[in-house]
UniProtKB/TrEMBL annotation, chain A:
It comes from the Eukaryota. The keyword NAD does not apply. It comes from Tribolium castaneum (Red flour beetle). NCBIfam families: SUI1_MOF2 (TIGR01160). Belongs to the SUI1 family. GO terms for molecular function: ribosomal small subunit binding; RNA binding; translation initiation factor activity. Residues 1-20 are annotated as: Disordered. This is Eukaryotic translation initiation factor eIF1. Probably involved in translation. Residues 28-98 form the SUI1 domain. Keywords: Protein biosynthesis, Translation regulation. PROSITE patterns: SUI1.
Automatic annotation (TrEMBL), chain B:
It comes from Zophobas morio. SUPFAM superfamilies: Translation initiation factor 2 beta, aIF2beta, N-terminal domain, Zinc-binding domain of translation initiation factor 2 beta. This is Eukaryotic translation initiation factor 2 subunit 2. GO terms for molecular function: mRNA binding; translation initiation factor activity; translation initiation factor binding. One of its GO terms (biological process) is formation of translation preinitiation complex. Residues 180-289 form the Translation initiation factor IF2/IF5 domain. Keywords: Initiation factor, Protein biosynthesis. It holds the Pfam family eIF-5_eIF-2B.
Amino acid sequence: MSIQNLNTFDPFADASKGADDDVQDGLVHIRIQQRNGRKTLTTVQGLSSDYDLKKIVRACKKEFACNGTVIEHPEYGEVLQLQGDQRENICQWLTKAGLAKPDQLKVHGF
Amino acid sequence: MAEDDAIFDPSLKKKKKKKKTAFDIEAALAEGGNEPQENNTTEHPEAKEEDQDDANVDIDLDFTKKKKKKKKPFTTDDLDAVMGETKEDGGNEGGNQDDGAIDDNFDLEMDFTKTKKKKKKRNLGDLIAEADEKHDDKENVDENSAVWMGSDRDYTYDELLKRAFEIMRDKNPDMAAGKKQKFVMRPPQVVRIGTKKSSFANFTEICKMLHRQPKHLLDFLLAELGTSGSVDGNSQLIIKGRFQQKQIENVLRRYIKEYVTCHTCRSPDTILQKDTRLFFLQCETCGSRCSVASIKSGFQAVTSKRAAIRAKTA
């Protein structure tokens, strides 16, 4: 049995751990945009650049049966873009794949 | 007057009791004949006496049932005895015994209403009586939540709980039994204009209700919906795209949660102020002050025709 107060505490533990932790930091914004008619577009902004977004979009396209692409944006970095209202799907998929925690996902739109 | 009434009452009772115990029609008729005479002879205002008569009849009806069982002529002197008997009857029924004892301590005249009830119950079927007694027990618990205070016995959980809530209610009456203050909003009126635009008719009204700048809410709505829009001359908001009332309601709800209600105490009584490029939410109720997220529209994909954009910019 050890006394907790006497243990040495490494203040940089979090910083060194952050790199290899599989959950990214920062919010993931999931938005929806209306197109013509009843068509919509779902964008996923804020996924960590550590991930290969191309692989993610390939998996998503197969899973949700929709088309999608990765867009390079000067300010927001790489952004996922999927056709149709995939907000529910992408939320579930990201949490299931362990790419983001549910409290990191921020769903916008109606 | 009062004395005469007092004298008058028992006599009436006795007569009626005799009449009903005997179930003698002739006697009843005779009595029926007698009553008005008595009323006439005594020179009180008749209405009053008749009221009293009615009251007595009610009481008598109850007592007669009792008497059918007991086969005893009823007098006021016997009341105590009867009460004692009823108590004995109630002994096997449990809870009512205490009540009977308490009733005895009060004035007899005051008791008539109560004793009436008790006696009725005993005349009914056992099931009903039991149910009533259970009900009585519950009432007792409700009434005396601090009944254990003086006594030596252990308190029960329910009593303690009730006591805690009573104290809470007494100390802060505005809280109203822990009820959360509900924030009531008028629903947004959203109408489609043509095929591609929606109108949010009571936009400024809702801004006023929320005590927020229309510009702030406008920014939020447009950023959340990912569209463009503007306020027109009739102070209604025109949004590009098809939106239903339900959808706007959802967005409004999110706005209220983030920018209107206090994050600490959830009170809607807040002020939104800008301070060094950040918005701060100051609560008027609890005095907390916290920064709120800035409104960013974020990444906007190209949804219109690219050729059209190129034509515009070029």
